[in-house]
């Protein structure tokens, strides 16, 4: 009984400490940053939509709500070549923004920034727990620091991009599924679908795998949660699907950077063209489906871990429109490579892990600095991480004997 009491005291103390740090962080961020430098434009349209729907009953997809968001961002209506600042998300995304709707935007922005700072650390922690990677204290410290300061994390935080929350939900769901916490895994994976471009491959593939693997509690949890999200959306706004489709169809008219494969075949090697892009997408999707078929019955295996991580990478390579903020979801793939490297090469791999982190943090920031035009990132920033990870994953693909290409090379 004494042990339980001490544990409860520890948990309560930890909760109070984390809450205090969060509140202090929000106040500090508000007074030093958001009240002076309004921004967070990636979440502002969702914030405006949440307030308009909650307090006035307006459709988040309406022209009036869109105009309000444009005036908050630009001080006027958007020009034809500018971001329209549309809601453009599933209706149930609005539920995530309702807590922020009770604050003015400067405070909501501060809350969003600090929440995402916490999210970046939690994504790293869940990714390590997912693969049961326990690095030495020094490597752990540098990894957690790196996870908050590399380009893709900082950009996600500064623009208050919902992708950070979706990535956290994805990684948390994968950890829960790995630990056989089926109900939690299904709920968190379904909630992450509020950012569908990050889940359009993983969600159905996990759902189908759960049936083959007879993980019925996961199947049920995922199905029920998705049903609740969709049913509540239709209840509050019956025509939300068609309204969202209209906004999504218009999205490509004012966004000019496509997927990494699109960049590769139309900008880097323009002679390849759209046919080559379609061919590469088909190859990657067929390959991914074949890998999933190999692990369809696996309850837990390195090959299953690898296949799920590969899914996160291919998602960002083939989606029609991606964003570098979405790349946070690929962190588990990188950590799987780190874990496999330590298993293969021992403690000396830790040096290469630190070097890799330095290359990623310095290299991508430098690439952004040299190519940025105004405030807009350019296409070169989209390429290093997904293609680098895809290459590494090919080399670290586990064989049926538990080895990989790197191991095979090292034993000959």
Outline:
The chain has 412 residues and is mainly alpha-helical. It has helices at 2-34, 44-56, 63-74, 94-97, 105-130, 137-149, 151-158, 163-178, 182-192, 202-212, 216-236, 240-251, 260-268, 273-294, 302-318, 331-345, 349-371, 384-395, 405-410.
Provide structural commentary.
The chain has 412 residues and is mainly α. The chain has one domain (18-247, 258-393). Helix content is 69%, strand content 0%. The chain is built from 19 helices and no strands. The chain has helices spanning 2-34, 44-56, 63-74, 94-97, 105-130, 137-149, 151-158, 163-178, 182-192, 202-212, 216-236, 240-251, 260-268, 273-294, 302-318, 331-345, 349-371, 384-395, 405-410. α14 packs antiparallel against α15 (302-318). It starts with a helix and ends with a helix. The model is unreliable at 408-412 (pLDDT under 50).
Classify the oligomer. Answer: single chain
- The helix/strand order is HHHHHHHHHHHHHHHHHHH
| Radius of gyration based on Cα positions | 22 Å
**Tally of helical runs:** 19
Give me the secondary-structure category: mainly alpha
Number of domains: 1
Helix content: 55-70%
Please name the defining characteristics of this protein:
412 residues; mainly alpha; 69% helix
